[in-house]
Amino acid sequence: MTGLLLIQLGTPDAPTYRGLFPYLRQFLSDPRVIEVPRPIWLPLLYLRILPFRSGASAAKYARIWDPKTGSPLLHYTVEQTKLLQEHFPSNPVKFGMIVGNPPLRDTIHDMIAGGVDKLIAMPMFPQYSATSFASATDSLFKALTKVRRVPAVRVVPPYYNHPGYLDAMEATIRDDLAKLAWEPEHIVISFHGIPQKYAQRGDPYATHVVRTTQALVKRMGWPRSYWTQTYQSRFGRSEWLKPYTDDVLATLAKKGTKRVYVALPGFTADCLETIDEIGTESREVFEHAGGEHLKNGTCLNAHPKWIEGMARILRDEGHGWL
Ligand SMILES: C=CC1=C(C)c2cc3[nH]c(cc4nc(cc5[nH]c(cc1n2)c(C)c5CCC(=O)O)C(CCC(=O)O)=C4C)c(C)c3C=C
Ligand SMILES: [Fe+2]
Ligand SMILES: [Fe+2]
To answer: Which residues bind Fe(2+) (predicted)?
Structure first.
């Protein structure tokens, strides 16, 4: 039996210091995410970063935590899985997290115990970066080292230019724009960043980002002067891919731009980085510099076009298996 597996980054169990500490510890111990040699990084992580960032990030997560459904990232991942299952009534569709709960390892073990001998995995990152996509495949293959009957495995290729993904992204942006009470004067297309060094060492992320952006602006019919592609969520003091989202927003506002829509095509579900970082922190940056309206884009979430898009991407990889 063929099983379908969504691999998402993961989220803390609770928006508290105790929820964040193990989450950040696991995330930031991943050598795919932090390429600094362990003897240098681990003392820094345990002495400087975890004690401070756990509290600071907990406060941010508390702002996006839903009293009923908890973390938006987990909520939408559950929804995506449930709705995708309707497209594949004869195949188990499950999800697992790289970091935190439910761990990918548990999901995979349950699927294999349930009779899955062919597995199609879909990392929930449209643009390949070793820090995200390869971290997902590392988790997957690591989990399989603990299994006696390893299934045949396929991993969907990065889908930054797949029509299933682009159709869904276009529909999501069009829905958002139709709901706005004001007309944006400029569109910022913001992606999660990575350190510049990683790109110089061969990570193709920036190329995938550019390809997605080019395809989207063409579909939307946006002239070159109407949009700017940026990178957000810088971590630490090194240089990350530029231009930084907040710098561009501040410059736009200082030049007199009052209304901006921020599209977020790199994120497959609403999360801390889209709701709080862009919707609260970057909005403040924009407003302090003289801007008036900033709308953070909705992510793909459970949009019917995205559920259909995921099904198309999985079917393409599932030839002969589905
Ligand atoms: C060096 C650090 C980081 C790299 C590189 C990085 C790449 C990267 N991340 C995402 C997607 C998400 N990241 C999220 C949270 C988050 N990211 C980092 C650090 C790096 N990410 C941290 C420390 C955190 C935790 C929050 C914080 O303390 O800032 C999330 C949100 C998860 C949620 O629970 O809502 C997502 C999604 C991508 C796509 C990516 C590389 C392309
Ligand atoms: Fe991140
Ligand atoms: Fe962040």
So the answer is: 192, 273
